[in-house]
Amino acid sequence: MTSFRESVRSLLREQVLDAAYALVAADGWGVLRMTAIARAAGISRQTLYNEFGSKEAIGGALVQRELERFLVGIQGELDAHRGHLERAARAGVGYTLQQAVDNPLIKSVLLAARGGMDADLLAYLTTRTDPVFGTAMTLLDAYATDAWPDVDEESRGLAVETIVRLTVSHIVQPVATPEESAGRIARITARVAYPGGPPAA
Question: Which of 15, 75, 130, 163 is deepest in the core (most CB within 10 A)?
C-alpha cells in the first residue's frame, strides 16, 4: 500500500517534470536552470535539489517518462495487429516515429542538437542509451515472447534489438517519412525474426 509520504513525493516529481517539460519545449535544454524549474514548479530550489540532485537527473527522468508514455501507445498499436508480426512492427514503429515528430520535448531537443546548440538530452538516445534501450527491449521482448511464441529465442532477441536501434536511429536522423521508415524497419525486423520466412497461415 502506498504511504501518504510516497504519494506526495510522486506528485512532487510529476509537478517538477511537468514544469521542466514545458520549459524545455519552449526554450531548449541548454538554457534551462534549476532555479527556473523550481520557480515554474512552485517549490524551493533546495527541495528540487533534494528530490533530483542535478539537472542531469531531471533530464534522465524526462526521457524515461516520455519513453514509458511511448511504450503504452506502442502496445496499443501492436495489439491491433497481434496476429501478424510485420504489420504489428510497422504500426508500432510508425506510431513511435510520428510521435517523435509531434512531441514538443523531442522536437525541441532534436532541433537544438542539429543546430549545434544543445545535445545533452540527445545523449540519452545516442551515447547514454542504457535506460532507454534497456527498458524498451525488455518490454518488447516480453511482449514478443507472448505474442509470437513461434519465433525462437535468439531470433526474437535479435529482432527486438534491431527494431529498437533502428527506430531510435530514425528518430535522431530521419531519412524518410515516418510511414516509409516504419515499413522498411518492419520488413527488416520480420526477416530477422523469421530468417526462413514466416510460417504459413
Answer: 163
The vertex-108 CA angle with 176 and 44, nearest 5°, equals 155
For the cut 80, the answer to whether the pLDDT of residue 125 exceeds it is no
The distance from CA 20 to its chain's CA centroid, rounded to whole angstroms, is 17
- Check if the beta carbon of residue 185 is closer than 8 Å to that of residue 166: yes
Count of CB atoms situated within 10 Å of the CB of 198 = 15
Question: Nine-digit cell at 32?
Answer: 534551462
Grid coordinates given for 117: 546548440
Torsions phi, psi for 125 (to 5 deg): -105, -5
Identify the H or E element spanning 120: none
Helices and strands, number each (H, E), in the chain = 10, 0
pTM metric for this prediction: 0.80
137: part of which helix (H) or strand (E)? helix 130-147
**43 and 12 Cβ atoms separated by less than 8 Å:** yes
